[in-house]
Amino acid sequence: MHFVSDLFRNIGLWFHGWLSGLLPGWAVTLIEYVLGVLILLTGALVTVLLLIWVERKIISRLQDRIGPNRVGPWGLLQTVADALKLLTKEDIIPEGAEKVSFNLAPILVVFPTIMVLGVIPFSRGIIGADLNIGVLYIVALGSIGVMATLMAGWSSNNKYALLGGFRVVAQLLSYEVPMVLAMLSAVLLAGTMSMQGLVEAQGGGFLNIPYWRIFVIPLGFLIYFIAALAELERTPFDLLEAESEIVAGFFIEYSGMKFAWFFLASYINTILLGAIAATLFLGGWQGPFVEHVPVLGVFYFAGKTLLMTILIFWIRGTFPRLRIDQLMGLAWKILVPLALIVLLLVAIVIKLPVPPLARQAVLFVSNIILLLGALGYIGRHLRLTAERQKLGGRL
Amino acid sequence: MLLPILFIFFSIAVLGFALLVVTTRNMFHAALFLVGALFGVAALYILLEAEFLAVVQILIYVGAIATLIVFAIMLSRNMMRRDIRAANDQWVEGAVAAVLLFALLVLVLSRASWPTVTAAAPPDAIPGIGKALVSDYVIPFEVASVLLLVGMVGAIIIARERE
Q1: What torsion do the CA atoms of B124, B129, B135, B137 make, to the nearest 10 degrees?
Q2: B48-52, long-range: CB within 8 Å, 24+ apart, which pairs?
Q3: Average pLDDT, stretch A311-340?
Q4: How many Å lie between the alpha carbon of A26 and the closest alpha carbon of chain B?
Q5: Would you list the DSSP string of B54-69?
Q6: In what helix (H) or strand (E) does residue A116 lie, and over which residues does it extend?
């Protein structure tokens, strides 16, 4: 029973003990690191395969279709068939393409997403590397993706790809600002940038729930979610690959496995968004009874991540795409000021000499008021714009 | 034993990339080599156990500045074509200035005393950096912020449409 209550860590400890008896210290370390990387990579790839199926099923249901149902039970192996098909496709490099960056871009797109997997805390003690700069590390790696997308768009020697590449810079750089500010609010509350430290700071209280950041700074969570969705280049922010305008955007010229790399990066990023949102704002692996039965943490974390991912798919099936001016307006006129206010609020409130629960109540109430105020203001602004346009039409 | 080897490896990589930046005839490749050199510097920071600086290096130089450079190259006409001349008519003056600057740097660096600390780096240096920025170094910090603000205001004024 004791072994099962912290199953994954005990398996790891048992393996470590068994290996230490056979090999010298450095070999044990080497093998454990390599195994850890392999487990993370395989896990991510399998999850991506399943997630593509899940997305197609969910979108189908939302659109009153059945979705993939031919290959394997319930169409589960459809993605495997698709991946095999992509593997056999011809690798085409367009004429006049810049070969070096054309070939480098797919690798550079996937590389940061896999590097980020290493700092995701799955449970207490189950993390690739608990860096004390975890959050900053994620942000820094995310910024490499911008560069890679730009390279892909430019090197293809295609005007649609180039347009997609230009949109990348505008969108990704703009939304990085509110996203980082929202993450910073969570960091400020915990007083650490280590991913495990952030999760530990959200424990305690009734069933380990009340200190989840979504119940402390709900607005911060909302800003993070919107901005991260834009960083993800997903609906309603998928202007970079808007099918109806610029066909597929920056990766229009990619075929076969190189195309699959972009696809893979996009889906790993979707999982990562869920995982990071869960870690920063939804309490990570914290949940009821997790201090007695640590193995539950893995399931809490996976559940929260899955919930966020499904929410993203749901949004894709629901919202239309934004226009580029609306997109930039949303980032700079609404999200950045709100994120700054939340950050200032957190910075002031955590220094107030009152008990933690009172601080939390103050933050929660002021966040809700801010959210309602912002929504009211946006609503009024949109109504006024609509009326003005109607008047303009009549004149 | 391993550390000096890694240090030499990354130093050579940084210098090699830097050399390629100024010698390559393709502007876009030069920008990519610059990214390589900046990554090398980040690796050197990690060897010095300054993880925070390493990550900030990647975030700011690779994520922001290199992207900006690449963007500027893309928007410039004829920069995309291969084989543009790497030097213009002022290369003599440029070479003289470069040699003078190099001499000056050598002079300064050879006179510096290079104090070393034997104590291990603190495991979590970020609180220390944060406190230093708002206490001992608050004036440079604020001046830098004002500089950035001025830059931002200037950019907006230049980009604004004429009425």
Answers
A1: 160
A2: B48/B121, B49/B120, B49/B121, B50/B121, B50/B125, B51/A131, B51/A132, B51/A133, B52/A133, B52/A136, B52/B125, B52/B126, B52/B129
A3: 85
A4: 14
A5: HHHHIIIIIIIIIHHH
A6: helix A99-117
pLDDT digits (tens, 9 = 90+) for B114-150: 887 777 767 777 888 888 888 889 999 999 999 999 9
Using alpha carbons, select from A178, A323, A145 the residue that is nearest to residue A244.
A323
Yes or no: say if A290 and A220 are a contact pair by the CB < 8 Å rule.
Answer: no
Q: What is the DSSP letter of A288?
A: T
DSSP string, A13-35: HHHHHHHHHHS-HHHHHHHHHHH
Hey, what are B36's tokens?
């390589």
Contact A309, A270 (CB under 8 A): yes
Residue A141 at interface with chain B, using a CB cutoff of 8 Å: yes
Calculate mean pLDDT across residues A15-37: 83
Q: Does A193 reach chain B within 8 Å, measured CB to CB?
A: yes
Gap between the Cα atoms of B93 and B151, Å rounded? 30
A157 Ramachandran zone, left/alpha/beta (phi>0; psi -120 to 50): left
The Cα–Cα gap between A271 and A306 comes to 8
C-alpha A347/C-alpha A350 separation (Å) is: 6
Question: Are B28 and A154 in contact (CB < 8 Å)?
Answer: yes
> Where does A282-295 have alpha helices with state H?
none
The answer to whether residue A151 neighbours chain B at the CB level (below 8 Å) is yes
The stretch A175-182 carries a mean pLDDT of 89
pLDDT bracket for residue A315 (50, 70, 90):
confident
Asked if A274 and A305 count as a contact pair (C-beta separation under 8 A), the reply is yes
B10: Cβ–Cβ under 8 A, 6 or more apart, which residues? B40, B43, B44, B47
Contact residues on chain B for A133, CB-CB shorter than 8 A? 51-52, 55, 126
How many Å apart are CA A322 and CA A315, to the nearest integer?
Answer: 13
Query: Spelled out in words, what is the top-level CATH class assigned to the domain B1-81?
Result: mainly alpha
Closest C-alpha to B80, from A166, A315, A156, A120 = A156
Which is it for the CA torsion B25, A165, B69, B162, positive or negative?
positive
Contact state of A132 with B58 under an 8 Å Cβ cutoff: no
Q: Is the pLDDT of residue A395 over 60?
A: no
Instruction: With beta carbons under 8 A apart, name residues in chain B contacting A136.
Output: 52, 55-56, 59
